Amino acid sequence: MGSSLIFSMSLFDYHLPSLGNAFFFLFFVCFASSTLTFTAAATNEKQKEALLTWKSSLEDHSQSLLSSWHGNNSCDFLGVICDDYGSITHLNLSYLGLRGTLDGLNFSLLTSLLSLDFSNNQINGSIPSSIGNLSKLNYLILCNNTLHGNIPLNIGKLKNLRILYLCENYLSGHIPLVIGGLKSLEILYLWKNRLSGPIPSEIGGLTSLTKLVLSINNLSGSIPPSIANLTCLSVLNLFKNEISSPIPREIGNLISLNKLELAENNLIGPIPTSLGSLGNLTKLSISQNNLFGPIPQEIGELRNLKVLYLWGNELSGSIPSEIGKLTLLTNLDLAINSLVGPIPSSIHNLSNLNLLCIYSNNLLGPIPEEIGKLLSLRLLDLSNNSLSGSIPSSIGSLTNLTILHLSYNDFSGSLPPEVNKITRLSAFDLSYNELEGQLPDEICQGNLLQNFSIINNHFTGLIPKSLRNCSALIRVRLDGNQLSGNITEAFGIYPQLKFIDLSHNYLYGGLSWKWGHCRNLTSLRVSNNNIFGEIPTAFGRMTQLRALNLSSNNLSGVIPRELGSLQFLLYLILNGNRITGVIPNEIGLLSKLEHLNLALNNFSGSIPAQLVKCTNLLSLNLSKNKLKGSISSEIGNMRFLEVLDLSQNLLTGRIPQELGKLRVLETLNVSHNSLCGSIPQAFGDMLALIIVDVSYNNLEGPLPNVKAFNEAPFEAIWHNKRLCGDVVGLQKCNSPMSKKGNGAGGHRTTAILVLSFSGFLLLAFILIFVRCQRKNIQIENNGQSNDSDFLRILNFDGKAFYERILEATEGFDSKFYVGEGAYGVIFKAELATGQSVAVKKISSSHEEEFLHFKSFEGEIQALSDIRHRHIVKLYGFCCHVRHSFLVYEYIERGSLRTILNDDERALEFDWDKRVNMVRGVADALSYMHHDCFHPWIHRDLTSNNILLDADYEARVSDFGTARLLRPDSSNWTAVAGTIGYIAPELAYSTIPTEKSDVYSFGVVTLETIMGKHPGDLVSWECSLSAEIESPTLLKDVLDQRLSPSRVRLQDAEDVVSIARLAFACLQVEPRLRPTMRQVSQELQVRVPLEMPFSVVSLEQLRDFDGRKFQASQGYCKF
């Protein structure tokens, strides 16, 4: 308006005298100025009104964060910048923690905005379509909020937009085609949302685009060939989506490309040779896809390449020698493929290489001598191949090496002495090879070695002297070799040591008191050696110890009472020694103890009454000692006991009736004692019992009517007084001969011969009868399949139990419904004995697969053999034409999810209980992954299949159930996990691994401390700049029902520790995740906080280098 008035003024210049002209000129200038001032004031007032109206729509706390928003001039408000006319041109409210929506912000009054930055807040709701009114906008930054809904179509009106950041939200739907019309766009960040559908080909019209980041979404389809038009593009990141096409050859036209990241998709086909045209490329990451074929030779043309990640595909053929042309390369990872042939000698040209990972392939031949020229190398992992020959002496030239993993190969010969020159090693793994000779004396010359493993080789000689002062040691595995020498003074004091295993060697000498000063030690295993002397009382100072295995040695003396101080001890294995004296009462103080084996020693006295306080025991073996007295009835209170072996002692008296309460007991051996009386009939309710041995006692009366006794071999019950029952070789209970007993001497021999011959005739008659009957049944059934008639419950009388379950649930009436789990509905059944079991009735959608359980009977037997206090016991299964179901131990409180969803119960589930629950789940997974003879993967760990007992102890259920469905079933991929808990690698593979369970554990752990599913907190980390990382405080995402701002220091330390471990478990790359054994061990150590709990942020917890765990894994094998 001012300009038009000034133009009008020029018209008067031709008609007025000079004085008048001056007067009028002054008049119009004043008028125009006042008009402009009035207009600016009016504009400012409207802008102020728009901002204050929006402020009032925010939550109260957020309004207080904008306390400077008062007064008459909005240009003075926090985050506001105006132009000379008072119009707001820049609005930056990032990192304030504002809560609210954008609905109350009138964008039509802010049309002068050039930049809008609301990033790193907690703004929710959708992006309003009125944002399209900001026609002058150059920068729109809304990253790291909780925005949801679709990207509005009106965003296509922002024709001047150069920067569009909508990353780290919950935006869904498709990428709108109108984005293709934003011709000025230079950077487009849409990563870490829930966007789906294809990448629109219209993006190819954004010819000014330099950075395109669409990672961590659910985008599918193909990479559009039109992307080749983006010749200015320097960064293309489509990491972690569901793109399932080949890599288009047109991508080779992006000659300005600096970083190409396509990892963690479902990309198929070969690597296009056109990638060799991307001469400016510094990073190429196409790992974790389904790419196949050879590595193209053209990749050697990428002379500026620094990072090459091809791991986790199906690449085959040999490693091309052209890789040796990539002289700027710092990181080369070709692991987990099907590469064959030798390691090319041209690799010696990669003088800048820091990381070389080729593990888990099929490489053959020796390590090339030229590898010694890689002087910058810090990490070398060649494990899990078929490499052979000797380890070259040139490896001693790699003096910067910190991690060296050569495990699971066929290396032979001795270690070259040049290994002593590698003084910076923190992790050294030679396990599972054919190496021999002596270990280098100066293996820990640099005193930096943390993880040292030589499991199952043929090393001889003494333990290296340098290990004695290697104070940085954390994990040591020397087991399974032929090491010798006196270990009394071979080891020193290791303040950080957590695990050491010296088992199965030829070591001798005494146990040093110095072990007692290894205060962080969780596992000490020295079994199967020639160790002598007494157990030092100083062992009682190892307060973090969870496993102590000194079995099969020549230890003498007594068990020191100080061991009662080991409050975290789970395994105490001292069998096969010459220990004497009484079993100390202090053993009863080990409340967490799960396995106690004192067999084959010289213990005397009675079984201590205090032992029954170890209520978490799973196995108790006191056999082959000189124990006297009676069996305590209190043992019946050890409700988790699965193995009880008291055989070959001097025990007298009766078998207590109370042992019948051991509902999960599977093995009972009280043979070779002097027990008398009858076997309690309460044993008939011990449904889990599999193996019994009561031989060589003075027992009499009928055998309990339970499968374990009915099917026991005669050798397990003979040499008693008057036992009777339906076992072959034993007198019937109603037979006159049974009254005369089955005592010693000639009568016993005669009876055995007669009974054996009679049994043989009876067995022959039964076999003939059964064969005839089977033929008749086959004729009657006219060749029908027997699958529908297959009925069995492991360790039970199947048909009888099937009827008892139907009776207890009244035919699966809804009033017995207690919940829903994977694959079916759960009912509570209370049997006539008073025992409660959980019955999972298989849903119809899975019943077809379940009817094929007969082919998985071996696996179910293995599952039913699992013994761990934190794993729900599987009793067995029934398959029937009417109903199919699994029978489990009943757990009182139900699932973790149910408790977290109930405000009242969640309050009772306090921090201490939650931390303890997380530890229990970790212990269970560690046991399944590492301690079972055949490792088991859960495959579907969620908060719904973690149950809590009366004491809020964790019990993991549904272990291995997914594995039992038919592999060719249409449901096979669906059972590999539950949405929200699935590891990212399962997006392209239906084969879960232990590391998939680790990821799910991370999700469940966060859910436990947050009180709800963590949502996008489990989104996979992206390799973008730190400037957009979230500063969210941990206390703000924890379960607010437990008032985390007032948490006790002890609980705060625990919560921070498990949160940090949870994020470690959520690493994108499976190999960067810890093993569950490592997690379980880490959870036993409380780490003091380095800063106030109130300022601990998620960013700090996520700032985790996963490779710290690689050193101690050997990539899952250490």
UniProtKB/TrEMBL annotation:
Entry keyword Iron: no
Presence of keyword Membrane: yes
Cellular localization per UniProt: Cell membrane; Membrane
Root EC class: transferase
Organism superkingdom: Eukaryota
UniProtKB keywords: ATP-binding, Glycoprotein, Kinase, Leucine-rich repeat, Membrane, Nucleotide-binding, Phosphoprotein, Receptor, Repeat, Serine/threonine-protein kinase, Signal, Transferase, Transmembrane, Transmembrane helix
PANTHER family (UniProt xref): LEUCINE RICH REPEAT FAMILY PROTEIN, EXPRESSED, MDIS1-INTERACTING RECEPTOR LIKE KINASE 2-LIKE
Enzyme Commission identifier(s): 2.7.11.1
Catalytic activity: L-threonyl-[protein] + ATP = O-phospho-L-threonyl-[protein] + ADP + H(+); L-seryl-[protein] + ATP = O-phospho-L-seryl-[protein] + ADP + H(+)
Residues spanning the membrane: 20-42, 749-770
InterPro entries (UniProt xref): Kinase-like_dom_sf, Leu-rich_rpt, Leu-rich_rpt_typical-subtyp, LRR_dom_sf, LRR_N_plant-typ, LRR_R13L4/SHOC2-like, Plant_RL_S/T_kinase, Prot_kinase_dom
Annotated GO MF terms: ATP binding; protein serine/threonine kinase activity
GO BP, sorted A to Z: defense response; post-embryonic development; response to other organism
Protein name according to UniProt: non-specific serine/threonine protein kinase
Chief localisation class: membrane
Species assigned in the record: Eucalyptus globulus
GO CC annotations, alphabetized: plasma membrane
Positions of ATP binding: K841
Membrane topology category: Single-pass type I membrane protein
Residues in Protein kinase domain copies: 812-1094
